[in-house]
Model the fold of this input.
Amino acid sequence: MCCGDGDCRPLGFLLGLPFAFLCLLISIVGIIIWIVGLTLSCICPCCLCVTVLVELALELIKAPIHVMEWFTSKIPC
Done:
């Protein structure tokens, strides 16, 4: 696996796989929170806390990508 910078870091990718799998499970929870939060924000758009909840859920959904990028950037070839 090579990054966009031209740096090849397969070791970081392999070490990050278990953590990315864990983050994948967390992102599934984030999807559920996002769906519930989106539904609540449609029912009551004046509720600001639901908007914050939806933003947090979106960050949970992006967690596996952030973990893999972090691991591949920390370990050299």
User: Anything to note?
Assistant: Residues 24-74 form one domain.
